[in-house]
Design brief:
The chain is mostly helical. It has helices spanning about 15-25, 30-35, 35-45, 60-85, 90-110, 120-145, 150-180, 185-220, 250-275, 290-315, 325-335, 340-345, 360-385, 395-420; strands at about 1-5, 45-50, 55, 240. The protein has two domains: about 1-240, Growth Hormone, Chain: A (Up-down Bundle); about 245-423, Growth Hormone, Chain: A. The protein is about 70% helix and about 5% strand. The strands form two sheets. The protein has a two-stranded antiparallel ribbon. A two-stranded antiparallel ribbon has the order 2-3.
Length: about 425
């Protein structure tokens, strides 16, 4: 199927704004839990008596488990959403997922004030991360289907909102740290923020049909050709015309896009194998208590999210190498070099590897190129794949790429465990 070119004018950019908020809302859960790693580590810092004399710190490997239990449900429920799509209405999948995500964020905020034994707190937090990302996967898959019915600019707006979700979470954490309040109050305020963001996302989805209905009334989209699809007053907006010919099979589509599928899988495998499970344990060498409090939020999360978004944005102006170039997968594979570079930074604690890049500036520079290349190659891979197939098969290509994206995230999360132990 191909996109219609006679789309109505979006006056005041309200529909675009709604899709930007929807994109932001899809990645809020992952980013807010990831950026709050310092809060969770503080709650889990505990000493246990061993042999009645020696005191050792119990290691939960929180960041590794958080990464793995965030990405596994993304992979599983991305597949599940393919079966849910024809059986459960879009409104239930999107609005229902947002409601459950909101309830889980409220639970997380409440637990800030509830004293809990460390093992119990860890188990409850891991269960929350699993379920919140399960609903997030259904939400994201459903919204990708919805935005795919609209002109290309709305897909770009939606992706831009997703790209800024991490920056939004990092700034919220910086504000919480700089609030000069006690740790509990700062954490409570931090987790209330995504509650408000999720409510705003739900509101945006609920008002979207009315905005689209207004767009439809401004533009006569009813054609005399019965093969054309028309606008409706429901969220299921069809802005496509039928493409003659049957769709190719999944295997046939995969044969055409397998290079791009490999690339998006490999990019996220490299990225998630070290971020945030390893990068969050880098310690500053600069003196000063204030900077130590801000170091990870700035040099790890803020730098990564800003440059990841910048890398995605650059692809709107620069697209090199081309989709046919053999250099493209070579450059993607070369990103594996970032793994040892980040492992040789001042990650603490460590048992085997030496520290080669001790200074904060070295870590920051590596993070800039690491995140910039991640966003750039992911966006190129995702945009190139549909161009390698016939227009009627673009939807199948997009679904396959979403699966391989999730596969890369899951493989990277699993690799973070042995890589962290190697340090």
């Amino acid at each position: 199927m191909k996109r219609r070119t006679d789309a109505p004018q979006d006056r005041y950019y309200m529909v675009g704004l709604m899709f930007f908020i929807l994109g932001l809302g899809t990645l809020l859960p992952w980013n807010f839990f990831m950026t709050a790693s310092l809060y969770f580590q503080r709650r889990l810092e505990t000493n246990e008596s061993s042999n009645g004399t020696e005191v050792v710190r119990k290691e939960y490997y929180f960041n590794n488990w958080m990464t793995l239990l965030s990405q596994l449900p993304l992979l599983l429920f991305t597949l599940l959403n393919s079966f849910l799509y024809p059986r459960i209405s879009e409104a239930i999948r999107i609005a229902g997922s947002l409601v459950f995500i909101l309830l889980l964020f409220i639970l997380t905020a409440v637990l800030v004030k509830v004293p809990m034994e460390e093992d119990c707190f860890f188990s409850v937090t891991m269960a929350t991360i699993w379920f919140i990302n399960s609903f997030g996967a259904v939400l994201q898959g459903s919204l990708f289907g919805l935005v795919g019915m609209l002109p290309q600019k709305y897909s770009s707006i939606f992706m831009s909102g997703q790209g800024l979700a991490g920056t939004f979470a990092a700034i919220a954490m910086l504000i919480a740290i700089g609030s000069k309040t006690d740790h509990e109050t700062a954490a409570l305020g931090y987790f209330i923020t995504p509650c408000v963001g999720t409510l705003l996302t739900l509101f945006s989805y609920l008002v979207l049909p009315r905005l689209v209905s207004q767009l439809s009334s401004q533009h006569n989209c009813i054609t005399h050709n019965p093969s054309d699809l028309t606008y409706t007053n429901s969220p299921h907006i069809s802005l496509y015309a039928d493409e003659p010919g049957s769709k190719a099979s999944v295997i046939e589509v995969f044969k055409k896009i397998w290079v791009m599928a490999f690339c998006v899988t490999f990019v996220f495998t490299v990225t998630l194998s070290v971020f945030p499970a390893i990068t969050v344990d880098v310690k500053t060498t600069s003196e000063g208590e204030n900077w130590e409090s801000y170091f990870i939020s700035v040099c790890c999360f803020l730098i990564f999210n800003i440059n990841d978004w910048l890398g995605r944005t650059i692809t709107t102006k620069i697209r090199w190498p081309s989709k046919e170039s053999r250099l493209f997968p070579v450059l993607v594979i070369s990103r594996v070099g970032f793994i040892p570079l980040l492992m040789f930074c001042n990650v603490q604690s460590r048992n085997y590897l030496p520290v080669l890049f001790e200074h904060d500036a070295a870590f920051s520079v590596i993070m800039v190129f690491f995140s910039l290349s991640s966003g750039y190659f992911v966006c190129l891979s995702m945009s190139y794949a549909p161009q390698l197939v016939e227009p009627k098969d673009a939807e199948t290509a997009g679904a396959l790429m979403t699966f391989f994206l999730a596969l890369g995230l899951s493989i990277g999360a699993a690799l973070s465990f042995p890589l962290r132990k190697l340090i």
